[in-house]
Amino acid sequence: MNTFIRDAVYAFAGLKRLFLFQDGWRGCFDVSYEGVARSFRAVIPTLPLYALIQIGIVYMIQDAGQAHPGFPPAYLAADFARIWLLFPVSAALAATLFSRKGPYGLWLVVHNWTVFALIAFQAALVIIYLAGLMPPEALWFFLAIPMRFILLIVHWRVATATLGLSWGAGAGAAALHIVIDLIAATAIAYALAG
User: Does the CA dihedral 163-146-9-49 come out positive or negative?
Assistant: First the structure.
């Protein structure tokens, strides 16, 4: 657990530097084979945060006056797996298409920690809502519109910085993953959400 905490502290320091366009962010991420594998341990604390978000969404829908029995477990499992397992495949495709296989490991590590940070941020919003400090309409609006924009910008910045691409090429690499992810999320929702 101590390595996880150390990795998380360094990763969040690196993310802060990355998103503030400061130098030195690369040194905060371990891109060795072990470091890449360890970055997937971010899945563990993300799982309860993901569950909290899904519970909050169900309450939000019910607060808006619509009946919602909750999401089927198969849908939740497939959606959570999509979040963590699809990116390595779509990123490998993008890295190959943009001839950037070398920094693929860095992109993977930074992305994993970024996913953890983004899910923690969304969970914090849900906690504010569940505490009665935010109306359901505000949570719905934020998760539906600004959060989508934030996800786009974050993926764009991470792809551009980790792969060493221009802003235009970085947008293409990020867009490739986002489109594949959107297709997969839609397919999972239609097949399993009920």
Answer: negative
User: Exposure pattern of 122-154 as b/e (b: 16+ CB <10 Å)?
Assistant: bbebbeebeeeebebeebbebbeeeeeeebeeb
- C-alpha closest to that of 11 among 50, 53, 41: 41
C-alpha angle 46-1-77 in degrees, rounded to nearest 5 = 25
pLDDT tens digits, 68-84 = 777 888 999 999 999 99
Could you tell me the pTM of the whole model? 0.92
Cβ 109 vs Cβ 12: under 8 Å: no
